[in-house]
Structures are given as structure tokens and as C-alpha cells.
Amino acid sequence: MRCFSLKSYLLILALIWPGLGVPAAFADLLVGSNRTNALLRFDENTGELIDEFVAGGSGGLTRPGGIALGPDGNLYVASNMTDNVLRYSGATGEFIDEFVAAGSGDLHKPSAIVFGPDQNLYVNSQGTNSVLRYDGTTGDFIDAFVPEGSEELTQPAGLTFGSDGNLYVASHGPNPVLQYDGATGQLLSVFVPSASGEIRNPTSLRFGPDGNLYVNSRGNSRVLRFDGATGDFIDTFVPQGTGGLSAPNSMLFFTPGNTP
Q1: How many angstroms separate the CA atoms of 90 and 220, rounded?
Q2: CB 185 within 8 A of CB 197
Q3: CB 248 within 8 A of CB 237
Q4: Of 162, 160, 239, nearest to 198 (Cα)?
Q5: Claim: this prediction has a pTM higher than 0.90
Q6: Exposed end of the chain (fewer CB within 10 Å): N or C?
């Protein structure tokens, strides 16, 4: 089996479910396969299948959601239907352990994970409309960083931290993108208001090289760009249906072919 190089420049991530918070580190393409409950690995240059990097159902994986590369170099995967986060070797794809226990902190239907500036793991809990925080070393529940009952948050999807250290969350409710204080979890703003840029059911969000925020608008199959400082709509970066784009779920900025 060919192993990942932890010194290579990037990981390109494609997911059936939105998964944010994947650092650029690996050179192969990982794809979460809902129907086979596996992570497939493809050659970054040819697109050819290399292997089933994480075997179907390994460790109980069911409907793989968000994937994150941890500070320890291992892969962390949200298992959407078993309400836990599993850890796999970043070198071999072998199951290591259940990093976040099923239902820990009332976790329900996770689909996005990200390691924060504090090195802890943040996980969306769609079933409870909250964002939960776990110890990045032990997986122990710390707190509901954005607690259930926060009226502004509905079915949280994508998660990302900005250069300001704050957490940005895509929401399927009337407030498409919310900004939370990265230290306290307090709501700072409705960063992108309802209908701005005709946004509908955002799933994934990323800050681009230009410092602006890019958001997948799943409901109308486009990628929108917003001012990274103010949240104001700039333009439709990828128009509806371009290249056959349909119901986008995830994205990552990368530079093909670059190595350190």
C-alpha cells in the first residue's frame, strides 16, 4: 500500500457530506463514500483509484461526514449515522480508535469537523443545532461551544476558522453564515444575512487566498463569494450548473502539482 507523505503540500478532499477543516497536507484525493461507508483514495494527477484507504465500515464507520487531519498526523472522520468521531492512521488508513464516543455531549448527526486554533476538535451536531467542542488529545467532551437552543443556528453544516481566530458556521436556517467568537463561542454577527447573493442551504465554507469567504450554495448549485471582513456579497464565483455542478457539498483551495 502506498502511504501518505506528511510533508507533501496538500490534501484535496471531496465528500458526499460537507466536511470542513482539512489542512492542506496530503497529495492524494480522498473521497467519502456513503453507500460503501469507506474512504477511497485516488491519484492526484490521473484520478485513478489507488485503494480503499479506509475500508468500508472500518471501526463502525457509517456515512462518513467531515474529515480533518489532526495535529498528530492522523485522520479524524465524523460518522454521521453512529454519532461519533473515529480516528484512523494517516499513514495506513487503519482504524485506531473511537476518538469521540457515540453521543458524547449529546452529539447527533455530525457532518463537519475542524481543529481550532486551541488544537481542540469542533464538531457540528445537526440533530441538536449545536457546535460541540472536544479535547484535541483525548476526545473528551469539553462543552457545547455553541449550545443547543441558540435561536440563530439551525442545522449547522460547514465549519471553518478565519484568520481572526473566530468560528464561522454555515446554517440551513434563516441566517446562512454565522460568526462566533473563537474564544467564548458568543455570537458576534450574522456574517452573511438571509438571501444575500441568493444563498440557499449553504453546506461548506472556506476563506480563500484573497481573504474572502467562499460558500457552497447547495440549494441552487453555485459558489458565492463574500467579503472576508464584512460579509458583504461580492459575486457569484461559480455560476449555477457550471461544469455540471449540482448540489455542491465541499471545497478546498489547492495548487495542483506543487510540492515543498
Answers
A1: 35
A2: no
A3: no
A4: 239
A5: no
A6: C
